[in-house]
Design brief:
Strand content: under 5%
Number of strands: 0
Order of helices and strands: HHHHH
Radius of gyration: 12 Å
CATH superfamily: lambda repressor-like DNA-binding domains
Helix content: 40-55%
Distance between the termini: 22 Å
CATH class: Mainly Alpha
CATH architecture: Orthogonal Bundle
Number of helices: 5
Length: 85
């Protein structure tokens, strides 16, 4: 099964050692970009179809979005995935 990243020609986000699809600096970048846009966790959660608690867990580094949710995050914040290698 191919990942959404390969199907949408997104950059390789992860180390091959891990099973995660989440960019290595996702935690810091999502919080910073959300704040730069003056979005609340609730606004981001509504935009991508998750709970505010899920966004909080991602920002704290205690949870990860699913591959589909990560794709939705990429649509809401395209600049989150720039300069990720």
């Amino acid at each position: 099964m191919t990942s959404l990243f390969s199907r949408f020609n997104l950059p390789d986000m992860v180390s091959r050692k891990s099973k995660s699809y989440v960019p290595k600096n996702f935690t810091q970048r999502i919080r910073q970009i959300r704040k730069d846009r003056s979005w609340t966790r609730k606004q981001l959660a509504v935009a991508i179809g998750v709970t505010p608690n899920a966004v909080r867990a991602w920002e704290r580094g205690v949870g990860e979005p699913t591959e589909l949710t990560l794709w939705k995050v990429q649509k809401a914040f395209p600049d989150l995935f720039q300069d990720v290698a």
